[in-house]
Structure formats: structure tokens, C-alpha cells
Amino acid sequence: MTAAVYRNFTQAELDLAYDNRAAVPDHPRFREDWMRRSAAVYERTRCDRDVAYGAGPRQRLDFFHCGKPNRPTFANIHGGYWQWNDKEMHAFVGEGLLARGINVVQLEYTLAPAATMDQIAEEARIAMRWLLPRLVTQFGASDRLAVGGHSAGGHLSAIALEVPGLAGGLLISGLYDLEPIRLSYLNAPIGMDAAEARRNSPQFRTQASVPTLVTVGGAELPELRRHAAEYAALLRSRNVPVEEIPLPGDNHFSVLDRLAAADGVLCEAVVQLLDA
Question: What is the pLDDT of residues 229-255, one digit of tens each?
Fold first, then answer.
């Protein structure tokens, strides 16, 4: 009998429980669509590209201007299990928000194995601390900033919300307890030990009291749905204003269209969050 390594999962079962690509066999078509749409966003939108928020080569952000002065801003942190992807491929998620008069920031961060989880999490906080005082003076925006992200970006957004001054957050399909990640195949390039996994798990950290939107696709892996439900429950138990947004039928990749579309439920939620 094969021993369990986490809860009732064997090693093979745990690895599969967090393999979003295996769960959506046609995932390449989403990535191709994202790249096409993102290129179009760059082409038609005024953008301050590769603005440095730190000294590292990937400590960069792109600021997309909605075309109106003194408007709020949404900072997006991309996913990729802390080891894949870049900001350029995810510009499409700002399509709807830009059309609704909200500026959008696409945030880059150092990927594993070039950075540890401690360092990656700190970069999310550094980016918010850098951006907040420059919204008005450098970018001509209002001082209202929300942060959000998908998958690993949902985890990093929960970490970033610890920075004072943010208006709220949108956590999409995030990971809030890193222990199963540590025990899975995903940890090979990250190299977390138990202590590092725990101190970077939002589930075990002090939560910010700002409004937080928690969502996950109804067709996503059960473990991701569990993370969302347990984290929302924790926020609620600590009197953090939290709203769970159901996305029935969406998988780990299609969820992003609910933010990218101007009439999407997540786009509308961010507009309301920013009082825009």
C-alpha cells in the first residue's frame, strides 16, 4: 500500500491534484489566445513599459493608462506556480478594466529558482510600497489601488495586501497554504522547507482588513476550490470584509475571461471595489 504524503494523497495523487495543465488538456489554446489579445492591448493602449520598482532584472511593471486622469488603478500579478510566465502574456486581463476607466498595472517578479519563496513574496510587497506613493505624481492616477492575481498571483496578491494603503484585493484561484506545494513536484525549483512554506502561507499570516474578493472556477481542481473556501472562511472569521464570487463551469484558464471582459463578473467586482 502506497503511503500518503499529504492528507490522504499519495505522491502521485498529490502531484496530479495541483497539475492544472493536465486537468485542462486544451490549455495551449488559452495561452495562444492570451498572447494575441495581450499584443493588441500593448498596441492600442498608452503604456509606461518596464518601469523599475527594484534593482532586479524582473522587478519591472507596465502601467497601462485608461485615458482619463485621476482614475483608480488595478495591479495584476500573473500566475505560473512562481516559476513560469511573464507580464507581457497577461496584458489581456486588463481589457475590460481599461474600457471601464481603470488603469491597469502588469507586475513582473523574479521566478524560481532564481529567487526563493521568501524573496518572491517580498517582491510583491516591495512593488506595492513603490507604486502607492507614485500613483498620483508619476502616473496621473488617483490614489486608489487594488491588487489581484491568478493562481500563484492570487497567493502573491494575498501577501501584497499586507501593505497598508491598498483599497482591496481580488484573489483568483489562489494558493493560501503552501505545504501541499512543498510536498509536490512543484517544489523542485522553489526549494521550500516546511518553515519557509508556512511563513509564506496567507492561511497562517495576519490578514489585512481591506475588502477582499475570493474566487475560483467551479470546474477547477478540488484542491484549488478547497483553498478558496478555507481562506474565505478564515477571512470571515477574522472580520475581514470578504466576498466569494462563484464562477460555475470555469476551469483554471477560462476564469480569466471573467476579469478580461468589460461585462465580466470579476471586472464588475473590481469596478465596485474601487468605487469606480
Answer: 999 999 999 999 999 999 999 999 999
pTM (two decimals): 0.97
| Residue 47 backbone zone (phi > 0: left; psi -120 to 50: alpha; other: beta) | beta
What is the 8-class DSSP label of residue 208? P
Q: How many domains does the chain have?
A: 1
In this structure, the dihedral spanned by the alpha carbons of residues 86, 256, 154 and 48, taken in order and rounded to 10 degrees, is 40
Closest among 207, 54, 193, 204 to 116, alpha carbons compared: 193
- Angle at the Cα of 185 from the Cα atoms of 259 and 91, rounded to 5 degrees: 25
Is 38 domain-assigned?
yes
Instruction: Quote the pLDDT of residue 207.
Output: 84
Count of C-beta atoms within a 10 Å radius of residue 209: 12
Beta-bridged to residue 171, according to DSSP, are 149, 214
In a domain, 248, yes or no: yes
Q: Render pLDDT for 135-149 as a digit per residue (tens, 0 to 9).
A: 999 999 999 999 999
Residue 276: pLDDT above 90? no
pLDDT-derived band at 192 (thresholds 50, 70, 90) equals very high
Taking the CA atoms of the chain, what radius of gyration do you get in angstroms? Answer: 18
Write out the residue range of the structural domain in which residue 109 sits.
11-273
Q: Return the bridge partners of 217, or none.
A: 247
Q: Side chain identity at 11, as an amino acid letter?
A: Q
**Three-state DSSP state, 137:** coil
In terms of Cα–Cα distance, which of 40, 13, 171, 151 is closest to 95? 40
